[in-house]
Specification:
The structure is a single chain. The protein is an all-alpha fold. It has one domain. It contains 15 helices and no strands. The longest helix has 30 residues. It is globular and about 70 Å long.
């Protein structure tokens, strides 16, 4: 380990260009998924696809539900795991206490996430990454081929817990306690229906203070019960798989791993595509809050589809990158400013839709708001390129780096 005590951030020329491209593409998928929940309560996610839609709205919603939802937060999680390894490995070369530097980086990310989830939008993923990131310190010295096994084990644990829950409920339904349990389920459904109705009202017409107050209750319902038990291990497991991929240099040195990337593509399509189609055809009306055998089956196939298609998408981008397709280079600047662009999504669309802003909540169908999402993403591709021609970092990336290294970083590029 280096004896240096002054840490410096990664210079732009040292960045992994392919990872920026993948991160830029992941931003698109995250936005296509999140746009629904800028106009729909987050708790409604437990009920699957909104089947009340018709025509282009339904076709758009179904396509995103089948091929996008879950696949891109998985991609972001893999990228976070890769970033974890790359950051720590570089920190070891520069400072005597790399774990402390990493902890500062995670702490600042957690602050971003806290502000985002409370004051901007409840669908934040940053705070979850910060919490999961603390557990990653337990795996600093774990070899790559054990990291991915740990990752798969955490994901499998989540699936197993859901199956145990379904089994337990099924056993209870065959016991004398069944009527009482059914009454409890009906009460839970009534509470959820009331919360969803209140959410529509508050987000459409409420003041900023009312929205924040309601958002806290929605977050508590989503994560305070069993939600965090099922969500956190999946995120941590996916991050560990990403850390393994980084240690194996699969996407950081892709030229040396063409064969592995082709295998990931085949694996992803072979397992991920059929699973995604099954969920899209037979799992659109699932009720995940109350486990049963059908829900457990869909939950399992969703996990397979999320990881499988995510790896396939990443492999396809890598093949295009290695074959010299120039158009995918436009994704890289957006990926370098991923934090800024991600937070901008929430600021723009909550301002556009919520009652304390312009108040367009519920005014447009899924197809219309998806077009809005694509328009914003296209603008961000241009703006990110323009910005990085003049500055070294995106605005939020600059804040994050400066706070991590406890020193204001040079923002403008040298003339």
């Amino acid at each position: 380990m280096s004896s240096l005590t002054t840490a410096t951030p990664t210079a732009p020329q040292e960045r992994m260009h392919l990872l920026d491209i993948i991160r830029g593409f992941a931003l698109l998928g995250i936005l296509l998924m999140n746009i629904e929940y800028f106009q729909r309560p987050l708790v409604a996610m437990a009920y699957g696809l909104d089947t009340s839609q018709t025509g282009l709205d339904y076709a758009t919603a179904w396509s995103v539900y089948t091929f996008v939802q879950g696949k891109f937060y998985t991609m972001f999680s893999l990228l976070f795991g890769m970033g974890f390894v790359l950051f720590l490995d570089r920190a070891r070369e520069k400072v005597s206490s790399p774990r402390w530097l990493y902890f500062r980086r995670i702490f600042v990310l957690g602050l971003f996430g806290f502000v985002h989830i409370v004051y901007i939008w409840g669908g934040d993923i940053l705070l979850t990454y910060a919490i999961a990131g603390l557990f990653l310190l337990l795996f600093v010295n774990t070899p790559a081929r054990r990291l991915w096994k740990w990752g798969v084990a955490f994901i499998a644990l989540t699936i197993l817990l859901y199956w145990f829950g379904a089994w337990g409920i099924q056993m209870a339904m065959n016991s004398p306690a069944a009527p009482e349990m059914m009454a409890d389920f009906d009460e839970q459904r009534a509470v959820m229906a009331e919360m969803i109705a209140n959410a529509h009202q508050v987000y459409a017409t409420g003041s900023f203070a009312e929205v924040v107050q309601f958002r806290l209750s929605e977050i508590a319902l989503m994560y305070g019960g069993g939600g965090i038990i099922f969500f956190m291990p999946t995120i941590l497991g996916t991050i560990l798989i990403g850390a393994s991929l980084a240690r194996l240099n699969i996407f950081t040195k892709p030229i040396e791993h063409r064969q592995t990337i082709r295998k990931l593509l085949i694996f992803g399509l072979l397992f991920g595509l059929p699973s995604a189609l099954f969920v899209g055809l037979f799992g659109i009306d699932i009720e995940l809050m109350i486990p049963d055998y059908r829900g457990a089956q869909v939950f399992t196939l969703q996990a397979v589809a999320n990881l499988g298609l995510c790896l396939a998408y990443m492999a396809i981008l890598t093949v295009l990158y290695l074959s010299g397709k120039k158009w995918i280079q436009y994704l890289a600047p957006a990926g370098r400013m991923a934090l800024t662009n991600y937070l901008t999504h929430s600021i723009v669309f909550t301002t556009l839709f919520y009652g304390y802003g312009i108040g367009l909540y519920g005014e447009y169908g899924r197809f219309g708001i998806t077009l809005m999402a694509l328009a914003l993403y296209g603008f961000q591709l241009w703006l990110s390129t323009w910005w990085l021609q003049r500055f070294q970092y995106g605005p939020m990336e600059w804040v994050w780096r400066s706070a991590t290294y406890l020193k204001l970083q040079p923002m403008r590029k040298a003339a």
